[in-house]
Amino acid sequence: GVRSAWGGREEHRFPRERENTPGDGEHELWLNEGKLRWKPVHSLHLQAGREIWSWGPSMFWSPSNPFYLATGKNNPQRELPGRDMVRASWMPADNVALTLANNFASGHPRDPEPLQRKLSLLKLDLNNNEASGSLIASRREGELWRFGGYGQWTASDALLLYADASYGKRTDLL
User: From CA 7, how far away is CA 10, in angstroms rounded?
Assistant: First the structure.
């Protein structure tokens, strides 16, 4: 069947040049996350909507993620903006997933990230009880392909090893 999930936010901003009095300011309401997900067959998921798609164990930066370099984990006051995208995920086994996605728009006009151009992505996820990882190939409109990946291994109850990296040109870091 079709599943849906929605999350929004309301914000009230006061003009900076005046004292904050009741009735002043402006209200803004936007949808930061919302999606429709359809599972036409057991191993295939089709999804469309606005979402925050992050992955990997990185705490501050996630170089493998072409949507969000900053993970948002180190600053709980900053809400990452959702991105408008469609994706298809095929899961031929419990521990393997192949996802094709297209990010066709930025989610909010006041997005703190630089102006986002359309982006296509192919992602391979592998996991088991002790380790997980992904290989990612992405291409932003007008740019060259970018390749990334992350891996995580739970060596023991006290030791977790992880890496997150990418190769390619990121114009939004300039």
Answer: 11
Under 8 Å between Cβ of 9 and 27? no
Give yes or no for a contact between 132 and 152, defined as CB atoms under 8 angstroms apart.
Answer: yes
Choice between 81 and 10, residue whose per-residue pLDDT is larger: 81
* Cα gap 119→114, rounded to integer Å: 14
DSSP for residue 63: T
Q: Could you give the CA distance from residue 114 to residue 121 in angstroms, rounded to a whole number?
A: 19
Model confidence at 2, pLDDT cuts 50, 70, 90, reads low
Q: What are phi and psi of 120, to 5 degrees?
A: -115, 145
Q: Which two tokens stand for residue 128?
A: 């088991």
Give 31's strand partners. 8
The model carries a pTM of 0.77
Contacts of 77 (CB under 8 A, 6+ apart): none
DSSP 117: P
As a whole number of angstroms, the distance between CA 7 and CA 152 comes to 29
**pLDDT tens across 10-22, in order?**
454 444 554 555 5
